[in-house]
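Lab notebook, bench 4. Still working through the backlog of constructs that have no structural model yet. Next entry is a single chain of 99 residues. Request: give me the structure tokens for it.
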Amino acid sequence: MKLNNQGFTLLEMLMVMFVISILLLLTIPNITKHKDSIEETGCEAYADMVQTQATAYELAEGDVPTLSQLESSGYIPSTTCEDGSSLSLTGKGEVVVTG
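Model written out:
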């Protein structure tokens, strides 16, 4: 009678689960700790993109746009960041994050 020994033992499976749980315990707090900085960077990146689109509008139309003109013309999808911060344009066409 032959025994089939092709498989993991209970001890091997417990060790694998232990290693995976340690890795999760190390990574999850780091991800949640940096969530605020990731959202802030996202808003800054969106403001830079709006600045680029304002410059493109100014080159195409010949005048400094407002945010509502950029949104209605399809240059930008929204006048606010995903975190709720508002954007505004100065008289010179510079984008400023408020709130």
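Notes after review: The chain has a mean pLDDT of 84. The radius of gyration is 26 Å. Flag for follow-up if needed.
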